[in-house]
Write a structure and sequence with these properties.
200 residues; alpha+beta; 5-stranded antiparallel sheet; 5 strands
């Protein structure tokens, strides 16, 4: 049985203000998942991704185990989605070996006729951070295209992930966003009026 978050000693709650942040995102799909990939909050654009507007409870279970996700929504499922998701499940279990929810999820993935072989084949693969990932998708409203993901952890004390996905329609794969280096940030800041040692 999974404990409620309020029962966990030392747990830091995510404040409801994050719901306002996520729901206020327009022009891109946005959501927050917890450390089990349970969806905490999402915006209207994310809901529109799914047929009938029915968002899954657990995003990882939906990506790897749901037939409609694999057959209708997540295009090029094996390469674009499963090969990145399976190592993430394995890493989560390695980091939390006593967590029954993660253990059960990994067991379901291993036993699945399609996800299981990919899980085993990626045993030596590193779990890739979704930030900057470009993946093929079939949007329930907008049709086939691509999503470009941007991901971040809201606070280090909270095991959660904030993700935005920009949709690009059409058959041509968009370029992966270039890394935003520290030097780039400094140069952009230096170009702003009032920036510098003498600025007030």
């Amino acid at each position: 049985m999974r404990l409620d978050r309020q029962d966990l000693e030392g747990w830091t709650p995510m404040h409801a203000a994050w719901q306002t942040v996520v729901e206020g995102v327009t022009g891109a799909m946005a959501y927050i998942v917890d450390d089990h990939w349970d969806i905490v909050v999402y915006n209207a654009e994310f809901k529109a991704l799914f047929p009938d507007g029915r968002t899954p409870t657990n995003l990882m279970r939906w990506m790897l185990l749901d037939d409609r996700a694999r057959e209708e929504t997540l295009l090029n499922w094996a390469e674009d989605w499963a090969r990145g998701a399976c190592p993430a499940v394995r890493r989560a279990v390695t980091n939390h070996p006593a967590d029954p929810a993660l253990i059960n999820l990994a067991h379901e993935v291993r036993c699945h006729p399609l996800a299981g072989p990919i899980y085993l084949a990626t045993v030596s693969s590193h779990a890739l951070h979704p930030d900057g990932a470009v993946r093929q998708i079939n949007h329930a409203v907008k049709g086939p295209g691509w999503v470009i993901a941007t991901a971040a952890a809201p606070l280090p004390e909270i095991a959660s992930q904030f993700v935005m996905m920009q949709y690009r329609q059409g058959p041509t794969r968009p370029h992966q966003p270039p890394p935003l280096s520290t030097d780039t940030v400094r140069k952009r800041a230096a170009a702003r009026p009032g920036y510098g040692p003498g600025a007030r």
